[in-house]
Hints:
324 residues; alpha/beta; six-stranded mixed sheet; five-stranded parallel sheet; 13 helices; 44% helix
Amino acid sequence: MIRAYAFNGDADGLCALQQLRLAGEPAEERDAVLVSGVKRDIALVDRVKGGPGDLCTALDISFDMNRSAVLALLAAGASVRYFDHHFAGEVPQHSNLDVHIDPSPTLCTSLIVDEYLGGRFRAWAVVGAFGDSLVDEGRATAQAAGLNPADTDRLRQMGLLVNYNAYGESVADLHVPPVELAQEMLPFTNPLDFAATSPSFRCLADGFHEDMDLAKQIKPMCQTSGAILFLLPDAPWARRASGTLANDLAKTYASSAVAIVSHKKVGGYMVSVRVPRDSAVSAEAFCRRFPTGGGRRTAAGINHLPSTDLDTFAAAFEEQFRSD
């Protein structure tokens, strides 16, 4: 039997994966096929091959973007488990399809898996929640796990660093490929032990601080009441830093929508959008107005914005989120 996981390479995807692998049979989990990439690389299920008796688990990647691949696996006789919190669209009914999808703004995939497993590896769910910018939910989950404030803060920092590592245009932009990070995580029931001993985690920490020092020098491209847009330079550190910078700036400008525009190596731009929870328009709805756009209510993006459309995007962003 083939056991395969298609997972988002960010903190939420990795921590959801870690919980399920810890709950499985050790020998089977060591031999599992892992398929992942950068955070924006979400059409992953089509890279999984399977047939009767095989199991594919998809984590933190939109069902809407993987529907055809899921249906192909099911038609081939494989079973599929799906855990996610993004827009799903129509989800088919099938005896071999086990779906756990909830787009509630206070949930992430790690928390959905935590509930599915009855809290067996809750500290990893805390890391995933913090990595997905669910700070209140992360603290509440840590408290439910009986973690003290100091350890909770360490898990918060860990979530930020692991999540940061997923941002880039390609795996070559990342400090540590997500599949390698997942394999190094596997033996650790306690994420604090992983953070204390892992060479890869030290690499993430050092790289993050170097990149953030450069990010602090960025100034807005345009700003109005309710909307602020940043255009990052064409550099590897900027592609890595874009997502974390978007989350940080969303906190700094808590009452405004924030857009981060990053250059792509192949031309055009990648866009991250963050909006306040009480925004009348969701980030996902706005980004879906553009081809390759999607996400969730408070955090969404556009995978490819043509260079010729930057001014159009900036004008639409300002018009949509400008405070009257």
